[in-house]
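Researcher: We're teaching a course module on how sequence relates to structure. For the next exercise, students receive a sequence and then see the predicted structure as tokens, so they can try to spot secondary structure elements on their own. Here is the exercise chain.
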Amino acid sequence: MSEKFHAELNNLKQDTVEMAEFGRYMLRTAVDALIQQDVGLAESVVAKKEEIHGMEVQIEENCYQLIALYQPMAKDMRVIACTLKVATASMRIGRYGKVIAKIVKEISDKPHIANLMSIPHMADLVIEMVDDAVRAYKSDDITQIAEFSSRDDTIDALRHSIFREGITYMMEDPKNIPRCTHYIMVARYLERCADHACKIAENVHYMQTGERIEIK
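Model: And here is the predicted structure for the students to work with:
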């Protein structure tokens, strides 16, 4: 394959890493806005929805163009296929950031219940998974994703814990129902972001080895 193709492929990967970091930024900022009850910060996340959508469209177009022009095979084709998956997962992570940001305005008028329970800790773990998955894609180093199954189990356990705790606070006082319902949904959104990090990891493993794995 020509040097020009590989130069364009490297540029494509760099653009995709930038998009993944942008989606991660939206999620991190939305969680920070939730913790701080900062409506202005949350609105800044919502305002970025079109920007990340545009990045996804451009990466998809560039992938299709590379396939049409060079008809890559084997590892080169797997890199492009993985890139499409990373772009889709990054878009969805950013979109969950936007959804969490929209919740901030609805629950910013009163102090948090139980200091948001385990949501800040869960968010830190999820964002670390996103970081490691993207780092593995960027560096072609699958050791970054070696423990993803157990890390995903931890995220699932935290979501269930937040659900049970939220139900307890709802039963104690019906006034807690709207706020705890949002907490439970945020935990669900964070779990889905961890799932997308796992999907990136699965595709990076396939990109590097040609072997498919399922992280569950």
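Model: If you want an answer key for the exercise: Residues 52 and 91 are 7 Å apart (CA to CA). The chain has a mean pLDDT of 97.
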